[in-house]
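Good morning,

Attaching, inline, the backbone tokens for the sequence recovery test we're adding to the shared suite. The designed sequence is right after.
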């Protein structure tokens, strides 16, 4: 099953509050909104992707608990990006410093981009569309992004102001200076 894209514009243009309520009223659905106002309704993941994402989120969360410099989030967290899009990366992280400076309402979508975002490509995700999403994250202020692609056995690393780096079958990934000391072991995630 692939994602369903609904173009409501110009007939209906949802306000941020209306989009938030739509998501709250349909919590069994994963809904994102593009900068152009299109709604993307994504099907539930297959069990293989679900297992990979559970490992990814757990490993980031465990490191975050020990490190203490930020907060990790799973794929159910919504972000309001600078370009007007609402996105939900498969895993993400924000520094405590940025979070405390903004002090956002924890019952609402995060009103800023994360410092770090990961997309784990499932078999139904189009590669080009996911790559465009990664570039959108960078354009909206995410400092480090990983596109983990089990289908092609590779990882694409997106960094602000740099070309995309493609790694074939890496065993692990470094959080670099964004997540100092974080190393994501890819066993059970990439394979």
């Amino acid at each position: 099953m692939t994602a369903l894209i609904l173009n409501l514009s110009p007939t209906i243009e949802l306000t941020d509050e209306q989009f938030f309520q739509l998501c709250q009223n349909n919590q069994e659905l994963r809904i994102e909104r593009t900068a152009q106002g299109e709604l993307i309704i994504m099907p539930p993941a297959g069990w293989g992707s679900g297992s990979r994402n559970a490992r990814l989120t757990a490993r980031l969360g465990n490191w975050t608990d020990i490190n203490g410099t930020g907060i990790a989030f799973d794929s159910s967290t919504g972000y309001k990006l600078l370009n007007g899009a609402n996105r939900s990366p498969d895993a993400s992280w924000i520094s405590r410093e940025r979070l405390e400076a903004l002090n956002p309402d924890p019952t609402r979508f995060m009103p800023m981009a994360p410092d770090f975002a990961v997309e784990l490509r499932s078999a139904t995700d189009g590669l080009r569309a996911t790559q465009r999403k990664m570039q959108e994250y960078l354009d909206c202020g995410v400092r480090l992004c990983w596109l983990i692609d089990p289908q092609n056995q590779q990882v694409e690393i997106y960094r602000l102001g740099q070309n995309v780096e493609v790694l074939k079958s890496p065993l692990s990934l470094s959080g670099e200076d964004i997540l100092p000391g974080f190393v994501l072991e890819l066993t059970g995630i990439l394979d």
